[in-house]
Amino acid sequence: MFTGLIEELGTIKQVSVNAEGRLFEITADKVLDGLAVGDSVAVDGVCLSVVRVGKEGFAVQAVRDTIKCSTLQLFQAGTKVNLERALRSGDRLGGHFVQGHVDGVAVISGISRSGKAATLIFDLPVDLMKYIIVKGSIAVNGISLTVAEKSGTAVYIAVIPLTFRETNLGLKKIGDQVNIEVDLMAKYIEQFLSRSDDRIRDIEKRIKSWGYDK
Fold it and tell me: In terms of DSSP bridges, do strands 40-43 and 21-27 run parallel, antiparallel, or are they unpaired?
């Protein structure tokens, strides 16, 4: 589990294809503190397992399915990535709960700058829009952000200067792709309501079978 508060920007040093998928070697500093093999790190919002730790960075393994449904397939040497270590017992919780399980990939369709801040417009997959609410949470490349507005499949998000400066959102341009994880609570609510609907339909079916539908 993560918070969506990025700890630092790392740099992809090397990408290697292997039997499992791809191995990403990442240059980093802050997240190396206490990092061990087997730990989880969110890389642009994707939860990956650490397989090697060195003095100047670490390596993570990604399987094919994860690569296919995220922007990991676009990573190459020099790519800047958002990094966050997994929550540990006693850590302060900021942002919102982020699992590191990407729900889809969005495209940046607009950038409106106002001084050092900006409003970014993301074009989301249509099937994710049911989870998006104004003033609700969303994770973009692992960053905990708040939805300012939505229209159709467009989601508008205001980004403060600090976030722009300390994450890779400040490096993005129109047409770039980003990882999206919708709010976990929205998915739980949908599941609860769908099960409730199933129970209601079952009750209605039973009542009709007893002849009370006339």
Answer: unpaired
Alpha helices in the chain (DSSP H): 64-68, 161-166, 184-209
Give the span between the Cα atoms of 45 and 53, in whole angstroms: 20
193 φ/ψ sector (left φ>0, alpha ψ -120 to 50, else beta) = alpha
| Assigned CATH class of 8-85 | mainly beta
Non-local CB neighbours of 32 within 8 Å, separated by 6+ positions: 53, 55, 57, 58
Rounded distance, CA 84 to CA 179, Å? 15
pLDDT tens-digit map of 95-128: 678 999 999 999 999 999 888 889 999 999 999 9
- The full set of domain ranges for the chain reads 8-85, 104-185
Q: What's the pLDDT score for residue 88?
A: 77
Helix, strand, coil share of the chain (percent; to 5): 25, 40, 35
Rounded CA Rg of the chain: 20
| Same fold across 8-85 and 104-185 | yes
CATH class of 104-185: mainly beta
